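Help!! Second protein's tokens look totally different from the first
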Amino acid sequence: MDENFILRVTGLNKKFGDLEVLKDVSLTMKPGEVISIIGPSGTGKSTFLRCLNYLEKPTRGTITIDGVTVDSGHARHQDIYALRQKTAMVFQNYNLFKNKTAIQNIMVQKVPKEKAEQEALEILKMIGLLDKRDSYPAHLSGGQQQRIGIGRAMAVKPKVMLFDEPTSSLDPELVGEVLK
């Protein structure tokens, strides 16, 4: 068995009442690998992503991310917290703080302010929005807001980034901007 993995899911199941949304899902992901989950609406893609960081509690199964394992049958609060520290999620909607500027939305709270600001500036440069550092979400396009959301996810330096249809709510002309 290959032990060079960053993410391993074994026998993941999720039920909502009698509806079984996920049934015995297993996968292994190596560092640097990109995995896309495709399928029609309502087939459990978002539920699967939400189970990976325990925004949804799986009915059964084991998730390991970067050495942290959580078995849904024995999930303790501290284990779930440790697992969440290894991930960042970018949602369909932007989830930005409306009262914060682009740079403030990216800055990590538990880091000294000067370091957090420097790292946020580097991320803004990477995502092509350095000139929008002091702009509030209301003054940014949908594509720019989504890029800020991606930048915020990058700032926490996750081992695994989860993207839940990050371009689905954008106009077609903005999709390429976010994918880049």
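Here's the second one for comparison:
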Amino acid sequence: MKTNLPTKKFNQILNQAKVLAIKLLGKDISNPKNFPETQGVYLVRKNSKIIYVGKGKNLKRRINSDHISGDKDGSTSTFRVSVHKKWKIPFGKEIRNWIIQNCKFSYIEIPDADLTSLVESLLVVVLRKSDVDLLNK
């Protein structure tokens, strides 16, 4: 059965996502307070091991407001909920302090929303297939 999928474009987009994913894997740790207010994908590391892959329309807000500060029950952050479940860290000040002390962040800006989703998904799949124990479910 023949498909109408434009193969050349398909391969170009996949290659672009691959290049961005590899670039993110090699990025240095950044201070979340210095993250841009733009869209992109980010990695969370604990003891230099990647534990979470995420995306956000506003990276600075996503990391600082949702993941680090967050609400009392973690409902705006799957990352905080996953940290709470895995390490039994209580929500509130305790989980905030734990994240600040144990987690490091890196990011890559990606203006295109579809490409952002593709890079996030690609990283999650490849890391899982590489036996990385991600908090992403």
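Reply: Different proteins will give different token patterns, so don't panic. The longest strand covers residues 49-56.
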